[in-house]
Amino acid sequence: MKKIAVVFLLAGAVMLGSFRFAGWYADNSALPRYCENPGAAIARVRDILSSETPIGDRKRRPYLVAAKLIFLVPQQDGENVEAYLTRLSGEINQRCAVGF
User: How big is the CA angle at 63 (ends 61 and 65), to the nearest 5 degrees?
Assistant: First the structure.
């Protein structure tokens, strides 16, 4: 019985550590990548959320990068697209300390 408790304790510690690391990574590494051109990232997120075929014939990579931004700062329940984009640009502005 003690072995099972130790396994659960270790698994819980690993999970807690990985969640903390993911949060740290999002704050310190992933979000600052959008500081170079935040307006373009916000425009692509708007396209992704409001269009059935946001990419069309364009390159996919910029839209995949914008989709990662949606993952890092998820839309809240009941939040409309414009309110989400405003909150998202505020998050980027806070992380990058720039205004756009």
Answer: 70
What is the domain count for the chain? Answer: 1
DSSP 76: P
In the chain, helix, strand, coil percent, each to 5? Answer: 75, 0, 25
pTM of the entire predicted model: 0.63
Q: Residue type for 40, please?
A: A
Q: Which of 89, 91, 43 is nearest to 65 (CA)?
A: 43
Q: Which domain holds residue 25?
A: 2-96
User: What distance in Å separates the CA atoms of residue 51 and residue 24, rounded to the nearest whole number?
Assistant: 32
Res. 69: pLDDT tops 90: no
